[in-house]
């Protein structure tokens, strides 16, 4: 069972995906801070308003998260290619809701960069609030999982030893297309890939995460309260464009697909941003 946030005939909806169709939930307009996990389970389905998926406009699966946490250096292969030391504490940085776009929407390539890079990531969506959550109970706070492309402006990321300015550009982070509930998927060895214009660029699986999903939730909740709709991007495996030889960067007209086995496939084109 998976859920999407979408627009149909100008109205905002959340719906349950049923094959090639989506069944809207009564009174639920987006997945986020006002949809703790039980809302999705308990909302009344409106089968008489079922529409085909290709007739709706997808939104980022969580359009307006209160907080977005990202994790750097969470796979050995990525640490090796960056020539950094293995961290003993998760490397964390934020993104903002303005960075998010939907599946199928064009990733906006800023004119300021010549080093625009992809990063395949599993994203965790929080469904139950909590502070100082013990690792042993952290997964109880997960609403579900989705797919993210943590697109990075490398020439801005490395201007300083902080990464924010390379990670938080508007309209550059696809999130979706759908939310999969935890009991619907086995992530223990789920494959994660990036395919750029038909070529596999990243290929790993989630068993190689250095810091587990539970550890990440517990770590973040130690310093701030997690709330429904908050999102944690769990890091990317090796194979990013910046570390390849020769380097590979996203260009206007490219198509990039991120897939996490059992969670979903996230495809976006790249389009040069028009500055007005």
UniProtKB/TrEMBL annotation:
Alphabetical list of InterPro entries matching this protein: FAH, Fumarylacetoacetase-like_C, Fumarylacetoacetase_C_sf
Keywords for the protein's UniProt record, in alphabetical order: Hydrolase, Metal-binding
Domain of life per record: Bacteria
Pfam families the UniProt entry points to: FAA_hydrolase
Keyword Metal-binding among UniProt keywords: yes
Every Fumarylacetoacetase-like C-terminal domain range: 67-270
GO molecular-function terms, A-Z: hydrolase activity
Cross-referenced PANTHER family: FUMARYLACETOACETATE HYDROLASE DOMAIN-CONTAINING PROTEIN 2A, FUMARYLACETOACETATE HYDROLASE DOMAIN-CONTAINING PROTEIN 2A-RELATED
Family to which this protein belongs: Belongs to the FAH family.
Name under which the protein is recorded: FAA hydrolase family protein
Originating organism: Gulosibacter molinativorax
């Amino acid at each position: 069972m998976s859920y999407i946030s979408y627009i149909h005939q100008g109205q905002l909806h959340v719906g349950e995906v049923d094959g090639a169709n989506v069944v809207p939930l009564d009174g639920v307009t987006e997945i986020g801070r006002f949809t703790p996990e039980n809302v999705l389970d308990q909302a009344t389905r409106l089968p008489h308003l079922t529409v085909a998926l290709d007739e709706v406009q997808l939104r980022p699966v969580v359009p307006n998260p209160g907080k977005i946490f990202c994790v750097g250096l969470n796979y050995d292969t990525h640490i090796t290619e960056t020539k950094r030391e293995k961290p003993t504490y998760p490397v964390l940085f934020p993104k903002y809701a303005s960075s998010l776009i939907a599946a199928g929407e064009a990733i906006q390539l800023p004119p300021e960069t010549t080093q625009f890079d992809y990063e395949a990531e599993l994203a965790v969506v929080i469904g139950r609030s909590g502070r100082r959550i013990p690792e042993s109970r952290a997964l109880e706070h997960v609403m579900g999982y989705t797919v993210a492309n943590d697109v990075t402006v490398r020439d801005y990321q490395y201007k300083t030893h902080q990464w924010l300015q390379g990670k938080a550009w508007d309209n550059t982070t696809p999130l979706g297309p759908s939310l999969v509930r935890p009991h619907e998927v086995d992530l223990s060895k789920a494959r994660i890939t990036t395919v750029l214009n038909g070529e596999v660029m990243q290929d790993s699986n989630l068993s190689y995460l250095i810091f587990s999903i539970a550890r990440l939730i517990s770590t973040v909740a130690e310093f701030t309260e997690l709330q429904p709709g908050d999102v944690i991007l769990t890091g990317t495996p090796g194979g990013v464009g910046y570390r390849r030889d020769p380097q590979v960067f996203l260009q206007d007209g490219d198509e990039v697909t991120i897939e996490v086995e059992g969670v979903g496939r996230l495809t976006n084109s790249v389009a040069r941003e028009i500055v007005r």
